[in-house]
Write a structure and sequence with these properties.
single chain, Glycerol-3-phosphate (1)-acyltransferase, eight-stranded mixed sheet, 8 strands, globular, phospholipid metabolism, transferase
Length: 377
């Protein structure tokens, strides 16, 4: 086991895996661009193809979590809820505390066959991130600048287009709007106090506008809301860099299902329902911190082989020519070629590290609360 852990931490292996992800991602983005000709002819065919192309990219990240690091994901929920997974359009409400919370969500999506159809209300800055933002663009992800006056038309139009989506869709919302930090939590609770709302210990005050708007726009399509509360055993603080290094984590996810009929239609009452939900999420986190587990029965969905097989396909396709090229460079003895190849490796490693940096808590998130006069919805 120690030998395997040492191999996983080797920079050259990580660089080769990063090479496979980046180059396969560029190929997938090019294929997605080619499918645009289908949009005016057969929109549903365009969507089905892009669901599968995006799956081929996202599943490589899921493979890192499932097979490379061996991270375990345990669900705390009832069997009736599990029986509905992958059989309906839903909105997912997930707490935003960890660097890899999105990856744990994608893992559950993959295990129930909805990874390709997963959606998110994403911040506009992510659209500019190579591979991730480009893939999301072709998937009709709704991007917003988190300024309602500017976002209103874009959000309504983007969500409206998804009403007839042909694949089962899990639409992720981070209602807190940004990742949890102590500074943001302090400011958020000041806002809660000024509005007469109960204090939260483990979450930021939810921003209700995104939830109420999404629920209203997808009415008739979305059948349920899944409230997901994520935490990690032994007070672990997981990172994507830790996953890349092969570090194993143990994720626990409490999942509660609410039918759309249970949620008030009136916007103000719906917002109140969301605030109450976050008070319940806070109580769940309190239980977890005291007992080391969430209440209720557990389900451990088995990992599927497709993420590993997909990665092996791309690795076989892309690494053979790379290794042959590297061998040719070394054998040639040309200083110019060798220096050029080393520069290529340095640039590639920097690019991959920057992609990983997109998930890091200290480098991401909004300037929450920096403007004291800023109105929070």
């Amino acid at each position: 086991m120690a030998l395997l852990a040492s191999l996983k931490s080797l920079f050259i292996l990580q660089l080769l895996m990063g090479f496979v992800f980046v180059v396969s991602g560029l190929i997938i983005n090019f294929l997605q661009l080619c499918t645009c000709v289908l949009w005016p002819i057969n929109r549903q065919l365009y969507r089905r193809i892009n669901c599968r192309l995006s799956y081929s990219l996202w599943s490589q990240l899921v493979m890192l979590l499932e097979w490379w690091s061996g991270t375990e994901c345990t669900l705390y929920t009832d069997q009736a809820t599990v029986d509905m997974f992958g059989k309906e359009h839903v909105i997912i409400i997930l707490n935003h505390n960890f660097e890899i919370d999105f990856l744990c969500g994608w893992t559950i999506c993959e295990r129930y066959g909805v990874l390709g159809g997963s959606k998110v209300l994403a911040k506009h800055e992510l659209l500019k991130v190579p591979l991730i933002g480009w893939t999301w663009y072709f998937l009709e992800i709704v991007f917003c600048k988190r300024r309602w006056e500017e976002d209103r038309d874009t959000v309504f139009k983007g969500l409206g287009r998804l009403r007839d989506y042909p694949e089962y869709m899990w639409f992720l919302l981070y209602c807190e709007g940004t990742r949890f930090t102590e500074k943001k939590h302090q400011i958020s609770m000041q806002v809660a106090e000024s509005k007469g709302l109960p204090q939260l210990k483990y979450h930021l005050l939810p921003r209700t506008k995104g939830f109420t708007t999404t629920l209203r726009c997808l009415k008739g399509t979305v059948k349920a809301v899944y409230d997901v509360t994520l935490n990690f055993q032994d007070k672990q603080t997981p990172t994507l860099l830790g996953i890349v290094n092969g570090k194993k984590y143990k994720a626990d996810l409490s999942v509660r299902r609410f039918t759309v009929e249970e949620i008030p239609e009136d916007e103000e009452e719906c917002a109140h329902w969301l605030h109450k939900l976050y008070q319940e999420k806070d109580a769940l986190q309190e239980i977890y911190n005291k007992e080391g587990k969430f209440p209720g029965p557990t389900v451990i969905p088995p990992r599927r082989p497709w993420t590993l097989l997909n990665f092996l396909f791309w690795a076989t396709l892309l690494l053979s020519p790379l290794i042959n090229f590297a061998y040719g460079v070394v054998v040639s003895g040309s200083p110019l070629l060798i220096i050029g190849f080393i520069i290529f490796l340095i640039i590639a490693s920097i690019a991959i590290r920057r992609l990983i940096g997109v998930t890091e808590v200290k480098k991401t998130g909004s300037s929450y609360g920096d403007q004291q006069a800023k109105k929070q919805n």
